[in-house]
Amino acid sequence: MEQRTMLIVAASVAVMGLLALFLIRPQVSPNLVSISGEVTAVRTAKGVTFISFVPNDFIVVSFNELSFEPMNHTLHGRLQEYKGKVEFVVESYD
Amino acid sequence: MIEVALLGVVIGFLSGLVPGIHTNLIAVLVVSFQADGFLSSVFLVAVAVSRSISDTLPTIFLGASDDVLSLLPSHQLLKKGKGLEAVFLSVAGSLFGCLASVALLPLFVLAFPFLVMLVKPVLFWLLLAGIFVLFLQERKIWGVIIFVFAGVLGIVTLSSVQNPLFPLLSGLFGASGLVLSIKNRSVIPTQRERSKVKGKSLLSSLVGAGAAAVMLLFPGLGPSQAASLVAGKRSPSSFLVLTGALGTADVVLSLAALAVAGKARNGAVVMIQSLLGTLSFSTTATLLGASLAAAGLATIGALLFAPVYARLFEYFDYSVLCCIVLAFLFVLVMALSGWRGILVFVTATALGTLAPLKGVRRSHAMGCLLIPTLVALW
Question: How many CB pairs under 8 A join A and B?
Fold first, then answer.
């Protein structure tokens, strides 16, 4: 394989990648979302913090080391799809 | 999102051209900005893949010494005026390694979680067996001595120094080669244009992607250790394709390992895990798209820029360039790891220099990571 062929292959791969970026719509909310409610319980397992939150229409988790007191909070984070369910990933809170 | 990926490709490509600026360093900076987690992840993947391709240039052109026994195949080619060929082979390995790892993904996604469970109880013995194979390839006592010394240095460094990998690895594998080049007043001949790769050599990219997949089963192992373990008696061209493929396939398959098993085995992917936590199918597909775009664009960049990089040696004295790079590494180590880092850097450089002086491969110094991994698995 010569350099010219390699450049053509590389350009094709780059176009494929850029097309993928253009066409795939990641199921992640594009910006930080804030939700307010009551943290009723906090449980940690394997480095993931699972937060019971009211209203509880979705799973609320945190991958950061955040220590919550069970009370009213405003959580800042991102909505994403995980195993077919909507998950709210907390990045910070007030 | 596309513009973020393109920015990642440019930053990754430029950082790869400067020895010492590792993806992990950029990843730490990106995370510290607290920017959008998803876009930061796209950026990091593009940086990691792009950098894994462009760092071929300084690896090949800034690491040569006169001691043939110690030289990696790329340096041997450089000394024969075939540095551009070495770049071509390595970059071809990276591109086809990326494609091969994407092709392997369906099998990897099915098998990886199962294999992780299967090998977990015997990880220690498998790694030990791999190390014995490494020794048997050369059968020299100095190889064992350097392996053990590097292991002790690794254990001490990993537990007591900030950003331990930078002074450790840049000393053992970067600065030691530069010191020998300065000592021997290496002269690099004019690099001839010859860019062709045999189809048979390209098969090594499939081996590289496969080796990267197996390597991900072992926590603590990286592409360098995997290259040491699977290199065998390959021709220089096959070896270069293999190592090129390993570096890029490592990033792509690490993303898949995070998505299917929650295991982050690569510095950039660890940061992505801290930003996004879990990866959904669409997120993984987007990050793989960024990987492909980065691999293609960085390959084009590396192939077009290589002759310019090679021409540097016609205008500058090679020893002076080596001194500048060495000084740059020294300053970076001081900034990232402090005085303890300098101590590690100097010790690692001395140890890395010992290998070629005793006529054994410098890859034995990978004991600095393999022994701590064995200790952790015990």
Answer: 130
Q: What is the mean pLDDT of chain B?
A: 80
The answer to whether B192 faces chain A, any CB pair under 8 Å, is: no
- CB distance from A27 to chain B under 8 Å? yes
Is residue A17 assigned to a domain?
no
Phi-psi category of residue B359: left, alpha or beta, with phi > 0 → left and psi -120 to 50 → alpha? left
User: Quick check: is A27 in a domain?
Assistant: no
Helix (H, G, I), strand (E, B) or coil at A10: helix
Q: How far is B152 from B144, CA to CA, in rounded Å?
A: 12
User: Is B5 in the A-facing interface, judged by CB distances under 8 Å?
Assistant: yes
Instruction: Give the CATH number of the domain where residue A72 resides.
Output: 2.40.50.140
Count CA atoms closer than 13 A to B308's CA, side-chain side: 6
Of A10, A31, A61, the CB nearest to B95: A10
- What local confidence, expressed as pLDDT, does residue B203 receive? 76
Residue in chain B lying closest to A5 (CA) = B196
pLDDT score recorded for residue A51: 81
Residue A85 forms beta bridges with which residues?
A82
Partners of residue B38 in chain A, C-beta under 8 Å: 26, 28, 30, 78
For chain B, what are the domain ranges?
A: 2-377
Q: Could you give the 3-state DSSP secondary structure of residue A86?
A: strand
Q: Indicate the number of domains in chain A.
A: 1
ipTM of the complex: 0.74
Q: Is residue A16 part of a domain?
A: no
- Do the Cβ atoms of A24 and B95 come within 8 Å? no
pLDDT band at B193 (very low <50, low <70, confident <90, very high): low
Domain that holds residue A58: 33-93
A76 in a structural domain: yes
Most confident by average pLDDT, A77-91, B20-34, B122-136: B122-136
Distance between CA atoms of B292 and B108, rounded to whole angstroms?
18
